Amino acid sequence: MRLPLPCNKVLATYVWIDGSGINMRSKDKILHCVPYSADQVPPWAFDGSSTGQATTDNSDTILKPAYVYRDPFRCDPHVLIMCEVYQGDGQPAATNNRKYCNDLCNYHAAEEPWFGLEQEYTMLDMDGWGLGWPKGGGFPSFKYQFSYCGVGAKYVVGRDITEGHGKACLYAGIDFEGTNAEVMHASWEWQIGTSVGIKGADDLWMSRYIMARVAEDFGVDITYHPKPMGLLHPGIGMHHNFSTKRMRSDGGFKFIEECIKKLEANHMKHMKKYGNDETTNRMRLSGKFETAPFDKFSWGVASRKASIRLQRHVKEKGKGFLEDRRPAGDCDPYLVCGLLMETCLGPAASTKSSPCSCPTK
């Protein structure tokens, strides 16, 4: 692994979302110089029939480079390439929601959409049971309130993985902002952003890839399932913090309230898209464990049981951002960020047939 490489050989790892909508794939290509932007990276074909994205009789599928990151596993000059997936006829693959989101980011660029993403997750042993949980189906004997931001081997497990992941994300150039142990034993969270436009969603997906790679070294599986340990234990979400220039300007609270009304009008349409599977997110949003009910929209100031939460200082200052607490841990941030922009700001000219036709008035 420490062998030097010729100076004109750069390892580029192409990374993409497969047909499951949550799992990621990658493969390596040798480039002859370091690419500093996506347009310097050539497109590449792959067998889409082996990733659930094409049929065997028409399997050629195209990887279109979207963003270049430094490779924290091989180090400079090697790179990770976040890619979009396109069918052979040039149409986006079914799980390629990046184009939808990026079109909206570009169309509403004057509004400077900002996103902050909070990714919760659970560490599992290779037997599928929670890391550090008693073997044979046992449950932790202590109360959950000691695990949240906890310290000590009795209350938290997997800190070495979170430490490695955080450093790797920072090295890669991701807008990585922090991490903490979550309420359920073996569950953690990391934060991306605040980032401008599409970068927040790009960074979140690449940080998922990096987490999977780091956890490989420890023989640990990472799951974003919204309710991995059943109904009696806390769930896993990904809160989306969202703001626009109007929201952040003086008097922006009025526009925030207008946006909340639009989100309420589209609540159930969004809920069908706010997770990899509607059923599992419904399990998470039970009204318990600091969640709002799946089929009931609410908002409030400093309320962790609301669908949309506003921090107290937003109300006091009369401007700021909103926090959408509804998305599941396994949601697609491209899709959720896109829906927030489309609903609050209106559709882009090129997204007439969006994944969710949401009225904006």
UniProtKB/TrEMBL annotation:
Database matches in PROSITE patterns: GLNA_1, GS_BETA_GRASP, GS_CATALYTIC
EC number: 6.3.1.2
Domain GS beta-grasp: 8-90
Residues of the GS catalytic domain: 92-361
An example molecular function term from Gene Ontology annotations: ATP binding
Alphabetized InterPro entries for the sequence: Gln_synt_N, Gln_synth_cat_dom, Gln_synth_N_conserv_site, Glutamine_Synthetase
Class in the EC hierarchy, top level: ligase
GO cellular component: cytoplasm
Cell compartment(s), UniProt: Cytoplasm
Record key words, sorted: ATP-binding, Cytoplasm, Ligase, Nucleotide-binding
Superkingdom of this protein's organism: Eukaryota
GO terms under biological process: glutamine biosynthetic process
Keyword Mitochondrion attached: no
Family indicated by similarity: Belongs to the glutamine synthetase family.
Protein name per Swiss-Prot or TrEMBL: glutamine synthetase
